[in-house]
């Protein structure tokens, strides 16, 4: 095949070029990347002839996503290739951070310090089978493969449409994909497309340390963050039982949340990881002998079948149990020292209930002004804003304390799964057979991609009750953070993830298997897309 990226060596060079375009989340590099990507695609013959089929769409903070459409004039069936171009930071590289975007130079430096690495990394370094660098696995190699595929389709006149979409911000809040959903619907209408598959290119994630199996994924795990604002009762440190520290109160719920199997789900024989605490701490900003009376905690929960309403119900039940236990222990301590408890109960309140209470007390204008002033604060991220809004409301409704306010903090990734879709079953059979016959490569089906992905924002099948509960209990829901649930429901095509093999994403030893990324996976995906196009005849 002629063209810019038709050989393994050309594809490798393209991947290294994309890695060289630094694009850490929330940096200038992330802002500039899609324009550079557009310029690169415009070098192809097809997009020089059809420049109107490449576009950049606005996200936020000057960031943009890119779409590029190869349109066969007689085809409606369309495969959407999804990727993200943002990366995590490079702090863990230490003095080698400037080389994190230069795979060849980074490998040379790694050779000099190879004794620092674990035996598996040393062996991979010595083998010459891997490329190293930030984002080379997660996931600029996937983007490069998609670019090569869309060029090849245009040169060979494949009888199927291909829409490439690459977005920013996947590693933080997935704003790129959430904003891009409407563009997918617009393009569908504009060009008469029939989306038949959303194919992501995230790399293979190991199930356990040392796992070198290669997987394809027929779904993507969900992630939600139930969170709590704890409000105790302030007191002087010399009169500890005259109040209750938020630290003490928070430990009761955190102990119940951490590793709690009540949140576990098993679907298709695969289980969700147990919940953990991502953030916990008091909100006291200065030293004094006044006890801390406000604290926050943010918990990570993975999902497969459950929606936001299900998670909130479980969360609320555990919060009520923890509040009762904490109150019981407080009463016992008071009795032991011969004093009367200073309060009778610890309330558990959902954020939506707190808002309704504050509206009755202060009026809607007050609530709207409070929320607006917080949302426009550039110094706070969406998680901090979530707690701040709930905190101000509760500070002005202290008659509800001591208490625990339950809320959701962004981001939210709904689970998605297409394992039982007959079309996906056919795709899996084709891909696994093709990989084995052509490359002697065994690909194992996994039902949920465990690395979290932007596939969460297509093929949404939940009822409105689930997302309404999320909207009502997410303090920042609206302009700074929203999810296009209804639009996502319209993107009905099933999902699949096929990406290259690598190791150690988000570590300084992040690396990509050269043969798999530049020879095997591109051909396997090409065969699948051609198969989909031929099926339409």
UniProtKB/TrEMBL annotation:
Origin superkingdom: Bacteria
- What molecular function terms (GO) are annotated for this protein? hydrolase activity
PANTHER family from the xrefs?
ACETYLORNITHINE DEACETYLASE, PROTEIN ROCB
Q: State what protein this is by name.
A: Amino acid degradation protein
Origin organism is Planococcus maitriensis
């Amino acid at each position: 095949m002629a063209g810019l990226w038709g050989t393994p060596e050309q594809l490798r060079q393209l991947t290294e070029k994309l890695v060289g375009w630094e694009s850490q989340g929330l940096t200038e590099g992330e802002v500039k990347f899609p324009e550079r990507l557009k310029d690169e695609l415009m070098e192809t013959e097809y997009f020089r002839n059809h420049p109107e089929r490449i576009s950049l769409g606005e996200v936020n903070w000057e960031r943009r996503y890119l779409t590029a459409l190869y349109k066969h004039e007689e085809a409606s069936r369309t495969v959407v290739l999804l990727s993200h171009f943002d990366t995590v930071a490079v702090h863990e590289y230490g003095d080698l951070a400037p080389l994190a975007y230069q795979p060849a130079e980074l490998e040379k430096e790694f050779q000099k310090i190879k004794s620092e690495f674990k035996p598996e990394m040393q062996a991979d370094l010595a083998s010459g089978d891997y490329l190293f660098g930030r984002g080379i696995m997660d996931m600029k190699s996937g983007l490069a493969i998609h670019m090569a595929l869309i060029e090849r389709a245009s040169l060979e006149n494949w009888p199927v449409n291909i829409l490439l979409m690459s977005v920013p911000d996947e590693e933080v809040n997935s704003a790129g994909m959430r904003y891009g959903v409407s563009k997918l619907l617009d393009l569908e209408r504009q060009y008469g497309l029939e989306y038949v598959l959303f194919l992501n290119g995230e790399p293979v994630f190991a199930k356990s340390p040392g796992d070198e199996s290669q997987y394809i994924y027929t779904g993507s795990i969900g992630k939600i963050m139930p969170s709590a604002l704890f409000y105790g009762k302030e007191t002087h440190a010399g009169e500890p039982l005259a109040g209750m520290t938020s630290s003490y109160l928070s430990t009761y719920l955190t102990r119940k949340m951490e590793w709690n199997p009540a949140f576990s789900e098993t679907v298709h024989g695969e289980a969700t990881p147990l919940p953990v605490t991502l953030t916990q701490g008091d909100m006291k900003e200065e030293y004094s002998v006044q006890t801390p009376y406000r604290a926050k905690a943010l918990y990570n929960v993975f999902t497969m079948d459950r929606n936001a309403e299900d998670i909130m119900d479980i969360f609320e039940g555990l919060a009520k149990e923890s509040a009762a236990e904490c109150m019981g222990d407080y009463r016992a301590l008071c009795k032991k020292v011969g004093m009367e408890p200073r309060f009778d109960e610890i309330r558990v309140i959902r954020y939506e209930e707190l808002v309704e209470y504050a509206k009755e007390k202060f009026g809607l204008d007050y609530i709207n002004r409070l929320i607006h002033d917080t949302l426009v604060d550039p110094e706070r991220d969406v998680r901090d804003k979530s707690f701040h809004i709930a905190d101000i409301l509760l500070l002005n409704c202290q008659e509800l304390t001591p208490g625990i306010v339950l809320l959701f903090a962004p981001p939210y990734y709904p689970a998605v799964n297409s394992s039982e879709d007959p079309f996906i079953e056919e795709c899996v059979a084709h891909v696994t057979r093709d990989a084995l016959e052509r490359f002697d490569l065994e690909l194992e089906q996994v039902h949920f991609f465990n690395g979290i992905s932007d596939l969460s924002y297509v093929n949404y099948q939940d009822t409105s009750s689930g997302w309404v509960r999320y909207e009502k209990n997410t303090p920042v829901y609206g302009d700074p953070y929203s999810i296009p649930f209804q639009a996502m429901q319209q993107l009905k095509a099933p999902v699949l993830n096929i990406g290259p093999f690598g190791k150690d994403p988000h570590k300084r030893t992040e690396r990509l298997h050269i043969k798999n990324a530049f020879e095997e996976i591109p051909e396997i995906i090409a065969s699948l897309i051609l198969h989909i196009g031929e099926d339409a005849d």
